[in-house]
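step: validate -> pass
step: tokenize input -> pass
step: predict -> running
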Amino acid sequence: MISALIPMFMLCVATVGTPGPANMAIMAAAARFGLRPVWPFVFGVILGKQAIIWPIGLGLLQVADAAPAVFLAMKIASAGYMLYLAWKIAGMSLVVGDAGTAAPGFAAGLIVHPLNPKAWALVTFVFSGLMPDMGSAFWTTAVGAVIILGVQLVLQPLWGVVGFEVAKRLKGRAERVFFILLAVLMLVSIAWAFWGAGG
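step: predict -> pass
step: emit ->
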């Protein structure tokens, strides 16, 4: 049974470990505010994926087949939110400690994955083809949820560390280019989720 989980685990590592809207948001927040203030946001992002995993694992895909217009509307709304995040990231600066700006918190992190088309594409693919049957929908979903959570706990904080370390070395024009690049990567990942992965 463990060997049957290896392809699913490898896909999770590949997707969580590569640029996407959530990872770019974590990286940008850590670059802007530092590591310690954004940990609540990071863990909100990690736990927020469970809000996708459980409904899909327990049968949301069947509902989607019955009401495609509702899911198209959700997809468009999700893309709109991610475009807004990309716009905010493009306008960020590294003036840490601005009294008028606070780091995003746990609640802000919770909604990132439910509105992230890449996350929906990953979880849908996992439960529609890669996840082996564990005896019931509940246990299949639970095992998948734990594996994805474990991968996230290891890899997603690293995006914050990378953002923080890169930010310490940037000044002037390089700072502007850095945040614009993060915004562009987020836009590319949104496009991939919509068209490249069919998600």
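step: describe -> The chain has one domain: 2-93+101-192.
step: cleanup -> pass
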